[in-house]
Amino acid sequence: MEILQKDDGKKGMFYIEKSNNILAKMTYVWVGTDRIIIDHTEVSDILSGKGAGKEMLTEAVAFLQEKKELK
User: How many helices (H) and strands (E) does the chain have?
Assistant: First the structure.
């Protein structure tokens, strides 16, 4: 599964898309410059039980760790 990301500096999301349909998403808001609050996670029945939520969370953690290392 490829995890994609959108971020506008105030809020964003990690998501899984297939054929222009979002099958899973995890939205967040920024708190300061190096913290986020995950405020919603949604996974379609198509991906249910396949670890999509866990993969998006893992991607979010890696993203924040990389951001912290760049400081």
Answer: 1, 4
